[in-house]
Design goal:
The protein is an alpha/beta fold. The chain has four domains: about 5-75, Phosphorylase Kinase, domain 1 (2-Layer Sandwich); about 85-155 and about 360-525, Rossmann fold; about 160-345, Dimethylsulfoxide Reductase, domain 2; about 570-685, Beta Barrel (Barwin-like endoglucanases). It is built from 28 helices and 27 strands. The chain has a six-stranded mixed sheet with strand order 5-4-17-16-15-6, covered by helices on one side. Helix 11 (about 240-250) runs parallel beside helix 16. The N and C termini lie far apart (about 65 Å). The structure holds ligand MGD (2 copies) and molybdenum atom. Molybdenum atom binds near residues 30 and 157.
């Protein structure tokens, strides 16, 4: 009997080994790291997800969230079939329909709208649910261009900062992260890298073992602040002032790199004049840092070489976010740290990938100039009676949770006359407001091309399992819609491989012999890095790094980064950055991850807690003219007086009063780039 049992176990083990397939994939979520994955499949089921060890940058380690990706794919909240709404909007009363009926309904409703309204009363709404190049932006753009729908300005993430960096350098190209393992002074500025860019934190740790010093500049004493050797706890949105204050000290101490400035930059004399206004006294008051701290930071930054600044998104989600980023990004030029391949700075490296967007998106299909809607102002757009949006098609995004001014967005989605289509993987808070819900594949069920905004590896991942239920990828759905509309151009017949070929149809990829065929064989290819991106020329009009840039006059009325600290007429400023275990609102339905995050809470300084009679763990109401949100109080020195930090985007039902954090966030636009200013939100508080 025992022998039989042992034999059976051995046999089962062998059978298991034989039937488990290891496949290559890439994490599709909106994160700088774009990790290469190894996925184990048995009987068309994903049984295990781990990191692919051969990837130069992600090296086989993945974050806790990605381990839980199976809980997205096999969630009981997964949308598996098309549905139509049969009850009240937002109520989750839906009836299953066929794909044929779903497409027919959409086409009929849109054709009816087109009879009575302009074509730009139909609005596409998407962001980065998948970072896959093709399912993110290709057939969808073709379709909406041909339809002459409204154009969406995709500004929710990093527009202010990208514009700020561009004013100095012209393009989103920075340091090769691999070299930062040998930097000697690393500043994490407004980035919680331990949470949001894990592999950069790993590289920094290696640099520390090689003798580097790590700095964090943030408004919350968070994971990265604790990881750093020194933490500079500053007042929100005072970063530009701090950067110019650092420049002031460096110039006064004669520690700037005259030679580098002379050969590689323009506008330094005017910049030098400007920074005179940012003397330590003023800067100390506005940033909340002492003069000693300012001095130490400036001197160390200028003298410990090579120094590297990782510029985050936190500091640019502010009304003055563009100028903050411009000012910070000039510091490496001031001290000449671009002369070292381990120096410089990195805001985004997305500029490395010469994807042929014109071929993918076909802007030539637009024959008029439809109106543009800024996605940050979605609530306003949906409640504007003068020029109404009559239909919205949401994919790759969850606006009922992620967009600012939630109650206005919700009011829009509640409109009975707004025809709402949501293409989703899950029954998200947005799907609940749809008239038609379409089931989306997850990245493991479709093919795509992947790039990164941190490293320079391009990859192609085939599907590793067949689509669940009747789910379909974005590309296929837009081809079906184009066909149903009778759009006859050949480009609507392209499949995902055709699209991948077109994406790679650029002079650069040809010169480097990078093709889909090669990617299918090799899975991923590292592009050529520019070791010294700014020592010969920059990507600006002058081909120099611009301390002064006349283009800023059109954007903001001045040609230099005149930074000012922020004043909001409220007792508190609310900062709501991402937490560790969710990726924006993705993964936030998974109980095991929610447990790791405690609950929707708000950090409050102990002095403020006394003032408002708040105890740890009590309920506190945070409110402004847009609404109110009840959170658990966490009394902590991690935040300064007058600053509140509420981490994470939970699904609406997880908030005590069913009002998500974005109820309170501002839908105003940044100084330059018309970007989101989530963190420049003024609020009041009271004990519940
Ligand atoms: N785990 C996890 N990783 C993520 C995400 C996620 O949701 N979860 N989201 C992904 C996405 S879409 C993005 S854009 C990135 C964002 O990742 P990051 O670039 O790290 O940006 P944030 O997390 O928004 O903010 C970073 C830090 O800025 C701080 N901050 C806020 N205001 C200021 C300020 O005025 N000055 C300074 N110095 N600091 C300030 C916040 O407290 C926060 O600690 O992360 C990506 N990675
Ligand atoms: N308060 C506050 N709000 C914020 C932020 C913050 O820090 N604080 N961060 C902001 C930032 S930086 C960003 S980038 C945005 C992110 O906003 P979103 O891009 O909306 O991010 P997610 O919440 O991840 O929602 C993506 C949705 O796309 C779906 N999806 C995934 N893959 C596919 C696919 O292949 N096809 C289709 N059709 N759907 C798919 C997912 O299921 C998910 O529901 O949020 C912003 N909102
Ligand atoms: Mo983002």
């Amino acid at each position: 009997m025992a022998f039989y049992y042992i034999q059976k176990v051995v046999f089962l083990k062998i059978e298991n080994i034989i039937s488990i397939m290891k496949c290559f994939s890439v994490c599709p979520h909106d994160c700088p790291d774009a990790c290469a994955l190894e996925v184990e499949i048995k009987d068309n089921m994903v049984v295990k997800i781990s990191g692919n060890k051969d990837h130069v940058f992600t090296q086989g380690s993945i974050c806790n969230k990605t381990y839980f990706y199976r809980d997205v794919i096999y969630s009981d909240k997964r949308v598996l079939y098309p549905y139509k709404r049969v009850g009240k909007k937002g109520s989750l009363s839906f009836e299953r329909i066929s794909w044929q009926e779903a497409i027919k309904t959409i086409v009929e409703r849109w054709q009816n709208i087109l009879k009575h309204y302009q074509s730009d009363s139909i609005l596409p709404y998407s962001y980065a649910g998948t970072e896959g190049v093709l399912n993110n932006a290709s057939m969808d753009r073709r379709f909406f261009n041909k339809l002459q729908s409204a154009q969406l300005l995709r500004t929710i993430c990093s527009k202010a900062g990208s514009k700020g960096f561009e004013l100095a350098y012209g393009k989103a190209i920075g340091t090769n992260p691999i070299y930062t393992q040998n930097s000697k002074f690393i500043i994490f500025w407004g980035i919680n890298a331990m949470v949001t860019n894990l592999h950069q934190a790993i590289f920094a740790q290696r640099a520390r073992l090689n003798g580097a010093k790590i700095i964090s500049i943030d408004v919350e004493k968070n994971e990265t602040a604790n990881f750093a050797d020194e933490f500079y706890h500053i007042m929100p949105a005072s970063d530009g002032v701090l950067a110019l204050g650092i420049a002031n000290i460096i110039i006064n101490e004669n520690l700037y790199d005259k030679e580098f400035i002379e050969s590689n930059t323009v506008g330094f004399d005017k910049f030098k004049e400007l920074v005179k206004k940012y003397a330590p006294d003023t800067v100390s008051k506005q940033t909340g840092l002492s003069k000693q701290q300012l001095n130490k930071l400036a001197i160390e930054y200028a003298t410990i070489k090579p120094s590297f600044i990782r510029i985050g998104n936190g500091l640019q989600h502010h009304l003055n976010g563009g100028f903050n980023t411009w000012a910070i990004s000039l510091l490496p030029a001031l001290v000449g740290s671009w002369k070292y391949k381990e120096g410089g700075s990195l805001k985004s490296n997305s500029g490395y990938f010469p994807i042929n967007k014109t071929l993918l998106e076909r802007p030539d299909l637009l024959n008029k100039k439809p109106r543009s809607i800024n996605m940050v102002e979605l609530g306003k757009a949906l409640t504007d009676n003068k020029n109404p949006i009559k239909s919205i098609y949401v994919y790759n995004s969850n606006p009922l949770v992620v967009a600012p001014n939630h109650n206005l967005v919700k009011k829009g989605f509640e409109r009975e006359d707004l025809f709402v289509v949501v293409h989703e993987r899950l029954w998200s808070d947005t799907a609940k407001y749809a008239d038609i819900v379409l089931p989306s594949t997850t990245s493991f069920e479709h093919e795509d091309l992947y790039i990164s905004y941190w490293h320079n590896v391009i990859a192609f991942a085939n599907r590793v399992i067949e689509p669940l239920g009747q789910s379909k990828p974005n590309i296929e759905v837009f081809s079906m819609l184009a066909q149903a509309f009778g759009f006859s151009q050949d480009c609507f017949k392209d499949n995902v491989y055709d699209l991948a070929d077109q994406a790679l149809d650029s002079e650069y990829f040809k010169r480097h012999n990078i093709s889909l065929n090669r990617l299918l064989k090799e899975k991923f290819i590292e592009l050529e890095y520019i070791d010294f991106p700014y020592t010969d020329s920059a990507y600006t009009k002058t081909e120099k790094i611009q301390f002064e840039n006349p283009d800023a006059i059109n954007l903001a009325g001045v040609s230099l980064p005149h930074c000012t600290a922020l004043t909001l007429n409220y007792p508190f400023i609310l900062i709501s950055p991402p937490n560790k275990h969710f990726l924006n609102s993705t993964f936030a339905h998974i109980n095991k991850l929610k447990e790791k995050e405690y609950a929707p809470y708000v950090k409050i300084n102990p002095k403020d807690a006394i003032k408002y009679d708040l105890k740890d763990n009590c309920n506190v109401e945070i409110f402004n003219e847009q609404g109110s949100c009840i959170l658990k109080a966490m009394i902590s020195d991690d935040v300064k007086e007058g600053v509140l930090v509420a981490r994470g985007l939970y699904w609406v039902d997880d908030y005590i009063n069913k009002q998500p954090i974005n109820t309170l966030t501002s839908d105003k636009l940044s100084d330059i780039g018309n970007g989101a200013v989530f963190f420049s939100s003024g609020v009041n508080i009271k004990k519940v």
